[in-house]
Design goal:
The chain has 536 residues and is α/β, with parallel strands linked by helices. It has 16 helices and 22 strands. It binds 1-O-alpha-D-glucopyranosyl-D-fructose and calcium ion.
Amino acid sequence: MKWYKKETVYQIYPRSFQDSNGDGIGDLQGIISRLDYLKSLGVGIIWLSPIYQSPMDDNGYDISDYQKIHPDYGTMKDFNELLKKVHEKGLKLVMDLVINHTSDEHPWFLEAKASKKSPKHDYYIWKDQPNNWTGFFGGKAWEYNPETKEYYLHLFSKKQPDLNWENPTLREEIKKMLRFWLDKGVDGFRCDVINLLSKTPGLPKGKPSIALCGHEHYINGPRIHEYLQELKRDVFNHYDCFTVGECVFLNPKQALTYIENEKELNMVFQFQHMAADNFFIKWFPIKYRPIRLKKALSRWQNEVNPTGWNTLYLENHDQPRSVSRFGSMKYHYESATALATLFLFQRGTPFIYEGQEIGMTNAPFTNLEDYQDVETHSIYHQFVKIFGHKGMMKKIMKMSRDHARTPMQWNSEENAGFTNGKPWLKVNPNYQTINVKQDETNEKSIQSFYKAILLLRKNHKALIMGDYQEYDEKNPHIFFYTRSHEGETFTIVGNLTSKPRKCPKVPLIENLILSNVKEHKQVLDPYEIRVYHKEK
Ligand code: TEU
Ligand code: CA
């Protein structure tokens, strides 16, 4: 069985994980000091959000040198030490690959914007007059460049100009960079917004829309499969590595065009379940209902398997904390462990985001100045005229990406043990009670539950390869499914609400091997989870 199907991935946002030199910013030596902690959790693969040279306009998703480590994080020597120690501990390391755009401070762009005659000019996308496309951070997707009196495309911040993948020389540059990292022994890539690489030739006007105008011309574009097959043929096929592509606005059928039999990517991140509490664009929140989460997760289980392989995630550096979003602070332990079990026991590779294993929560920041994220500030300025300051702060307090980026909460000492300097982003004030050390000693320990889940999954093929079958699909409160393989069956049933609910008829009255409550009645307690197991 391929290692990236058996193992669980732990995503680290380096800026917020562990500071080692007191500058208030997480770094590679900090990560090295926490490798044994990660090993003890039972994860097998570490995914690092970008650590490359960058002006940090988008905290590293704006790269100015793909082959240099940002001094905030350390040196290439630190990186080599990290990679060596990761492998010595039997772990794998996956890098974040941002190749839809660079930083506007990348040398390629500095050359490109200086003159139309520059050989690098065609590495980017230019227009004499902007069309009506808008980007993911709100607002126009074109920025004027006075040196050449034309506009360049940026689907994210104006400091993130999109690369022109039509240019074969550019594609060769990217392949060379990929080989640089793979030759060092990196085990794979998380590919940022990978289904945006191909744009409709001629860059035509988009259908009018208040959000993401023109997205029909830059999502799943006409040559995307050609480009990804080229990367696979010329680079990835020559290494024992895996690729997970972040693909915005993808449905299962479209996903299979990328991952069927792992022909282009090994798996994708999709966003349907991330819309369980919003109207597809997270800034338009709607009331969360568990059935929306269930429906999204089951759809991807039923429509991607068996020829495709899913990713399983509830959090990452772009999403609010799942226990704040889909759980409850009143039932903090129960909801964190119920959510963990229900998503990690599905079929696919599990991805855990830093802090999720102790139930870290959204931050109670009420001032716009408390937020650092470029997306948060950009969206605020784009829409404050429509929704007003209070309206925008309500949205930001629910959905800002900074909720995932407050420093990792290690203990109850100053700054939660993250730094002895001034943290780059405020620590969540609840770190006194929600932190790794406290959780470890809690009788109701969330991380112990995660360890139990990961151990069970690793030791049972039925939880890795087993068929998925949902029951009681229409039940608005209970999530209930089985995983079975060669006669071995796991039955997972969970209450996704804060009220007791009748326990459905469990198909197999077999021994209960995992639960987050002590006594089991005819009803499921709030956020009670039960896992039954029937041997072959
Ligand atoms: O995110 C892609 C993306 O669409 C984000 O806007 C995300 O969907 C949104 O923030 C969810 O609310 C990737 C990276 O994960 C993100 O951190 C970067 O800002 C973005 O690409 C540009 O590189
Ligand atoms: Ca540091």
